[in-house]
């Protein structure tokens, strides 16, 4: 459903600075601007480039780990309507008042950026952070204009999304999560185009390719919106943004809303009977709250006592899987589950897993639709992997 009435232009402001960067082997760079174009302010000593910043601003990731990317531009006028994904807003003009947003660990890496080579805000903030005792500070001098010029898609803030909704702006909000979590709740006015079914649902996109599109999903640990936004851009849509904080941040700030607030097609799984959780052989699988799910307690008990009696299929991306998964798990990305359905072994119960329960639920829905007697379940929980260990939090 398109939000109508007032059109809001989400534009990118490009800096006039076009200075070249002298590359170093470590991915860092220092400005090599002509003397006439050199900024008239004191620059920070440690300058980094796009290649250095990219890994720190790519999803999925946890903001609490790795470098903290900081936008030094004004919040309402710049950050809210378009910033580098994962970055937080600490305007240089409000640095002292907002310094509490900086990490407690003074050794943690900080990367400041603003509006390009002629913008001094990020450099100013870097010096202020140094005075506070931070020891690992860098500045992405090329900033937001360079990020955009490299073909990257900017992210908008939760406050900006709320503003668009309140103003009934001419923008399409697109929930890239699977149909199951969308049906449980979404941002008012959003439509559902699951990333794994993007090609089949592309007709939901507006015909006018200049229409503003904003994709979102399950927060910083979810890269579905990033993938969908790139697909839309490849189709020729010219005004594409992401809302990387996603539905979790919306709920935290404005509360949950029923999916009925955004009319959309019913979940595909509703068209086919669901396989009821049951005991399979010697494996005692206890159902979770959601139909087709396995309870966290049951899953953890089986992992501890009889892991060989179930097949865990991790439906996250190969990159996520590489960073860690459950012992013995195999990887079939959710978008490939339908095509590879026939290759999944049938000799033991299958448990689909992901990071939040969204993609695993979609994998269950897909296999259940293909064969409602397929002995499968999904883990409806938040899962984090680190240092060879995992932590499961029930939903």
Structure description:
By secondary structure, this protein is α/β, with parallel strands linked by helices. It has three domains: 21-149, Oxidized Rhodanese, domain 1; 158-266, Rhodanese-like domain (Oxidized Rhodanese, domain 1), CATH 3.40.250; 271-394, Rhodanese-like domain (Oxidized Rhodanese, domain 1, 3-Layer(aba) Sandwich). Helices cover 25% and strands 16% of the residues. The protein has 13 helices and 17 strands. It has helices at residues 50-53, 75-79, 95-98, 121-131, 143-149, 158-166, 179-184, 198-201, 224-234, 246-254, 296-305, 318-323, 358-370; strands at 21-23, 29-31, 68-71, 88-89, 110-113, 137-140, 172-175, 191-192, 213-216, 240-243, 293-294, 311-314, 330-331, 350-353, 376-379, 381-386, 389-394. The strands form five sheets. It has a five-stranded parallel sheet. The two termini are 28 Å apart. The model is unreliable at 1-36 and 260-281 (pLDDT under 50).
Q: How many structural units, i.e. domains?
A: 3
- CATH class assignment of the largest domain: Alpha Beta
**Contiguous helical run count:** 13
CATH fold descriptor of the largest domain: Oxidized Rhodanese, domain 1
Report how far the terminal alpha carbons are from each other.
28 Å
Provide the fold topology.
Elements: E1 21-23, E2 29-31, H1 50-53, E3 68-71, H2 75-79, E4 88-89, H3 95-98, E5 110-113, H4 121-131, E6 137-140, H5 143-149, H6 158-166, E7 172-175, H7 179-184, E8 191-192, H8 198-201, E9 213-216, H9 224-234, E10 240-243, H10 246-254, E11 293-294, H11 296-305, E12 311-314, H12 318-323, E13 330-331, E14 350-353, H13 358-370, E15 376-379, E16 381-386, E17 389-394
């Amino acid at each position: 459903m398109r939000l109508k009435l007032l059109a809001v232009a989400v534009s990118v402001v490009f800096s006039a600075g076009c200075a070249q960067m002298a590359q170093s082997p470590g991915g860092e760079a220092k400005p090599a601007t002509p003397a006439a174009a050199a900024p008239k302010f004191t620059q920070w000593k440690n300058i980094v480039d796009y290649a250095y910043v990219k890994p720190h601003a790519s999803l999925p990731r946890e903001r609490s780990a790795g470098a903290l990317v900081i936008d030094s531009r004004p919040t309402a006028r710049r950050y809210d309507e378009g910033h580098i994904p994962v970055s937080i807003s600490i305007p240089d003009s409000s640095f002292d008042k907002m310094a509490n947003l900086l990490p407690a660990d003074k050794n943690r890496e900080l990367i400041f950026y603003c509006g390009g080579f002629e913008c001094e805000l990020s450099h100013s903030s870097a010096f202020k952070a140094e005075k506070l005792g931070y020891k690992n500070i860098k500045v992405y001098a090329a900033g937001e204009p360079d990020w955009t010029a490299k073909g990257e898609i900017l992210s908008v803030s939760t406050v900006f999304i709320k503003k668009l909704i309140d103003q009934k702006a001419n923008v399409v909000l697109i929930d890239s999560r699977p149909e199951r979590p969308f049906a449980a709740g979404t941002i008012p006015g959003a439509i559902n185009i699951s990333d794994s079914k993007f090609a089949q649902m592309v007709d939901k996109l507006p015909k006018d390719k200049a229409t503003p599109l904003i994709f979102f999903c399950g927060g910083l640990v979810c890269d579905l919106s990033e993938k969908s936004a790139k697909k839309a851009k490849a189709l020729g849509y010219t005004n594409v943004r992401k809302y990387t904080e996603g539905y979790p941040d919306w709920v935290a700030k404005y509360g949950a809303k029923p999916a009925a607030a955004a009319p959309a097609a019913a979940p595909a799984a509703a068209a086919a009977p669901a396989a009821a959780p049951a005991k399979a052989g010697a494996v005692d699988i206890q159902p979770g709250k959601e139909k087709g799910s396995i309870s966290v307690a049951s899953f953890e008990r089986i992992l501890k006592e009889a892991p060989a009696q179930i097949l865990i299929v991790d439906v996250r991306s190969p990159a996520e899987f590489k960073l860690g998964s459950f012992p013995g798990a195999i990887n079939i990305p959710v978008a490939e589950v339908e095509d590879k359905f026939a290759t999944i072994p049938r000799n033991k119960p299958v448990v689909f897993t992901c990071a939040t329960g969204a993609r695993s639920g979609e994998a269950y829905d897909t296999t259940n639709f293909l064969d409602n007697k397929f002995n499968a379940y999904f883990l409806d929980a938040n899962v984090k992997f680190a240092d060879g260990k995992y932590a499961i939090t029930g939903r």
